[in-house]
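chain below, 391 aa
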Amino acid sequence: MTHPTRRALRSSAVDAARPDSDRPVTRREMRDLERASESIAMTANEARAAERVTVVQGSAPLYTSRRAMREAATRVAQDLSVSIAESTYTAPIITVDAPSLGNGGETVPGVRARPFTPRVVRQAPVAPPSRPARSARRIAQKISAGGALLFIGSLVVVTSLPAQAVQTANGIDPEVAQIHDVQTIESVTAEATTYFARDNVTVNDQVAAARMSEGERAAYQAVADGETPGPSYTGDPAFPQVWDMLDTGVVQTPFPNLDQVPMSSQFGYRPGGFHGGSDLTPGIGTEIRPIANGVVSAVWQGNNPGGGGYAVFIDHKIDGEFVQSWYAHMMPGSITVEVGQVVDITDVLGQVGSSGRSTGPHLHLELKNADYVSFDPMLWLQSREMNLENR
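prediction:
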């Protein structure tokens, strides 16, 4: 059997519609005719597929479309019978000890009875001490007490006797002299330097030697008072005669009583320009002392041209070289020295403050050489074994 094509069906449908009327077919009628032809062709294809399929009894059903498959599954699900199982929950039985129930009822259901069996601890009898041991102990106590009294009495007798009663007429007992060597310590003063001599060992106190006596200070001050002060910004001493007499080799930090001093700014370049000194921050009001003996060459009462506020300049002759020390930003009213005054390492120059161009209490310590060039004060003190540790 030969099946018609879509074109043949469409032409046959058009031909079938034309005998009734000679009018032309519209587009809508044409689409309807095409849809009818397609449905006829689809039905014919399904019929042909059904002819070729052999259904075996008991096999899975065949569906021509997914919709038919879903509808068949829905019908099967609706035909299933549903049964609800009965509850199988069983309440648990709680068993507790009797003391935890208290006095809540007359009877206690579900309580396990635990037999109580007291434990008996037997202690072995201790025999009383025998009399012979007790008497021996008393005798030992009496003997030790008597020995202690005799020892104390001998000490009293020995300490109350004079030294001649226990030594020979010639001095120290020969046996004792052979064991111990007698040594003497004497104080020796030479060239204004104090030494302590013991055998062949001498200790030189340089700090004590650098301190001036009242007579020395008065003599140096008389020389300074007879001089006309020179300028303090030239690299030469303002009081050359007394400066030449104050030659010293002993130096110290401005805070000799402190082992560690915080440093807020070091020597060298920093934001804003070159910093010619070291800024030390031991705290406001801390006393400031000179680094060595010298003569005051300048005192600024808040009018330091470099912004140092209240400041003091001192000329030193250290190992024959000119060194000028600056102490800036002092507390107003704390300066205790004046120009031309001879100072030593024990004098107090003033107190730490924040005068002038300063952002906080600190001491600006600056050192100048004979060329009037600033150098690192902390490094210079370290090179002279005066290390002021900072943190």
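Residues 214-383 form a domain with the Glucose Permease (Domain IIA) fold (CATH 2.70.70.10). Residues 131-160 form the longest helix (30 residues).
thats it, cya
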